[in-house]
Design a protein that fits this description.
By secondary structure, the protein is an alpha+beta fold. The chain is built from one helix and seven strands, in the order H-E-E-E-E-E-E-E. The chain has one helix spanning 3-29, and strands at residues 46-51, 55-60, 69-75, 80-87, 91-96, 101-108, 113-119. It is rod-shaped and about 90 Å long.
Length: 120
């Protein structure tokens, strides 16, 4: 490469790098990096409803941040009853309640804290 080609090559690549950087800035500024989740009025990404025949439907709109979310039933004495199941990921879960159940609670067994409690 002769000197004039090296000089032209340097300016072409310098111009291209500035142009590409400017285009990236223009593209990124129009992107929306915020995300919204489908949250219920209580601020959690799921809702629980009781239907006939003692069946509870839990609809999870997004995965919970805890790896161990267990669903327990609450009996008439307001105590924890049997384990109904586990919430793994996004989707709908159906659990069958006993006859004396008055609600459900979701507990993170690793951190040992309640995530959600509702009565019917």
């Amino acid at each position: 490469m002769i000197a004039s080609q090296r000089k032209a090559h340097k300016f072409i690549w310098l111009g291209l790098s500035i142009l590409i950087a400017a285009l990236l800035v223009l593209v990124i500024k129009d992107l929306d990096f915020s995300f919204s989740t489908l949250e219920t009025p209580n601020g959690l990404p799921f809702e629980a409803m009781r239907s006939e025949n003692s069946i509870v439907l839990v609809k999870l709109n997004e995965p919970l941040k805890t790896p161990s979310a267990l669903v327990y039933e609450i009996n008439a004495n307001k105590e924890l009853g049997a384990v109904l199941g586990e919430l793994n990921g996004k989707g709908e879960y159906k659990f069958t309640l006993s006859k004396n159940a008055v609600g459900i609670t979701v507990i993170d067994k690793i951190k040992n804290q309640k995530i959600y409690t509702t009565t019917f």
